[in-house]
Amino acid sequence: MLFRYLVAPLLLSGSLAVNAQAQTTAWQGKQCAVVLTYDDAIDADLDRVIPALDSLQLRGTFYLIGSSPVVARRLGEWRKAAQKGHELGNHALMHPCDGTLPGRSFVTPDNDLSKYTVARAVGEIRATNTLLTAIDGRTRRTFAYPCGDRTIGGVNFYEPLRSDFVAARGVTKGLPTAAQADLTNLACYSINGQSADYMIDLVKQARQTHTLLVFLFHGVGGGHALNVDANAHRQLLRYLKAHERDIWVAPLVEVAERVKAQQTAAAGSAPAR
After folding, report:
1. Topology of the domain covering 39-267
2. What is the 3-state secondary structure of the chain?
């Protein structure tokens, strides 16, 4: 009986250690993965965000709208960002959102997803991939749902696009493990006015739970109705850099490829039923 009481805690601690090791394997052996994503291809990305990331040798994912004038006007700068290791992600050609939903007064008839067909949505997204490849020469990237909208008339328009992307980022909050991560709708935390402490606390939670944390930013220090203070953003970056031994910070395409490999390996080792 005494032997049982002595051995049981040892077995439990060993099991927890193995589980933690399996979770961190997905994150390059580190405690967690953190991905910094920036939507809408705005001037602030090139003027403030990329210089801030480059100064600390951190890399992020920038979701470009194919029709954005900032893409056309500053194409060379986007190309340089990609050459430095940042991901240029796909945020569709026209950033269509479902205008029938509450709070969508900003949606115009031209970019109302509810008036699209699935074929049109797929075609515009693939056209944006062609544009992005012309900029960065890459064929592997991720997609971000404009406004988080995923369906047209009840049909998920991403289904025909699964082979076009490594993964797609949604807008729902969550800190998934590699096994839990839904590569068709990756969870993220949208930042709009929150403090540096709030963002750093999220990173600490991810470290403790060995999970994936994706940040969603728009404006940084201005430039968008959804915004985060530039100093708060800078404090987050400095925290990530100071703890880079324990935190894997990478573009979403790289993290998603790692997650996909882990999930495929796990599925292959699962016993047949």
Report:
1. TIM Barrel (3.20.20)
2. CHHHHHHHHHHHHHHHHHHHHHHHHCCCCCCEEEEEEEECCCHHHHHHHHHHHHHCCCCCEEEECCCCHHHHHCHHHHHHHHHCCCEEEECCCCCCECCCCCCCCCCCHHHEHHHCCHHHHHHHHHHHHHHHHHHHCCCCCCEECHHHCCEECCEECCHHHHHHCCCEECCCCCCCCCCCCCCCCECCEECCCCCHHHHHHHHHHHHHHCCEEEEEECEECCCCCCEECHHHHHHHHHHHHHCCCCEEECCHHHHHHHHHHHHHHHHHHCCCC
